[in-house]
Amino acid sequence: MTDQKMPMYGGQAVLEGVMMRGAKVYAIAVRKPDGEIVVDTQPLTGIYRSKLARIPFLRGLIILWDALVLGTQALTYSANMQVEEEEEKIDGGSMVLTLLVSLAFAIGLFFLLPAGLAYLGETFLGWSPWWCNVAEGVIRLILLIGYMWGIGQMEDIERVFGYHGAEHKTINAFEGGSSLEVDDVLTYSREHPRCGTAFLLTIVVLSIFFFSLLGPMPLLSRLLSRLLLVPVLASLSYEYIRLTTRFLDSAWAQPLIRPNLWLQQLTTREPEPAMVEVALASFRAILEQEQADAHA
After folding, report:
1. Residue 117 and residue 222 in contact, taking contact as beta carbons nearer than 8 Å
2. Which listed residue, 4, 31, 63, 142, has the most CB atoms within 10 A of its CB?
3. Which residues, including other chains, have CB under 8 Å from residue 119's CB and lie 6 or more apart?
């Protein structure tokens, strides 16, 4: 799949559903407990339509943050579709709080903890600063892979990973020129080079190179440097993924893309036909809306 002019369709798995994002709209399709598929289509506004979203390196930070907010809204909607009683439904404020706590947990687990462990190795084991920084990156990579494998063993998350696979298969089928029918979509790969999993792995790998150049630091300075460089790593990772997917068919890009695709074996599952049906409902909704807007 090579890079193409916008829209580059993307999406996210949610609870018993899929959110698909186009150039002008996004749609969330969710299967309710009674089996009904409900679809909510909304326009994309704000930063997605601004000139800032086209500036290299800056666009990665802006779009990724907005994608987190959009993803939180999609998760809230999907969670509320699974309950019938109003008092059991989640409000937006609760989901935003959950998002912030999750971000703090992720930064603490994947950035601060490895930095602290590497500092202990340097202080008490006498390792050189350079090797400690490399060890920090290796610890970070092990934690990421272990975390993804671990949560994938949970039944509810395993179903979300199935919808993640359905999302990828649907986009792969569309970009491969196939008909958007369940049986045809199921034949496509559940891996996609623009996946958020690829983004996370790229951040971790780049962190090994970046942090290895910083040399010895006191513990507090080490931790602060990791926090401050997270946005830099995120921005570079976004541009790296855009570049490699643009030259997806080039021989030099294949070795760079394969690790990202391999890691998606942990965050996707082969979807059930019913899951693909939901993903297609979401994708068709954005296609229909964008075609209607084009003819308006």
Report:
1. no
2. 31
3. 132, 219, 222
Q: What is the C-alpha to C-alpha distance for residues 46 and 96, in angstroms, rounded to an integer?
A: 18
Q: Are 208 and 24 in contact (CB under 8 A)?
A: no
Question: Closest Cα to residue 32, out of 280, 289, 284, 278?
Answer: 278
Measuring CA to CA, how many Å separate 178 from each of 169, 184, 251, 265?
Answer: 11, 7, 25, 23
Structure tokens at 99: 């998002």
Cα–Cα dist 211/125, whole Å: 19
Does residue 173 contact residue 189 with C-beta atoms inside 8 Å?
no
Nearest CA to 114 out of 225, 191, 265 is that of 225
Query: What whole-number distance in Å separates Cα of residue 114 and Cα of residue 219?
Result: 12
How many other C-beta atoms are found inside a 10 Å radius of the C-beta of residue 236?
17
Q: What's the pLDDT band for 16 if we cut at 50, 70, 90?
A: very high
What SS3 state is found at 272? coil
Enumerate the H helices of the chain as residue ranges: 58-81, 92-107, 113-124, 129-151, 155-175, 182-185, 196-212, 219-246, 254-267, 273-294
Pairing of β 37-43 and β 17-21: unpaired
For the stretch 126-167, pLDDT in tens is: 778 788 888 898 999 999 999 999 999 999 899 999 999 999
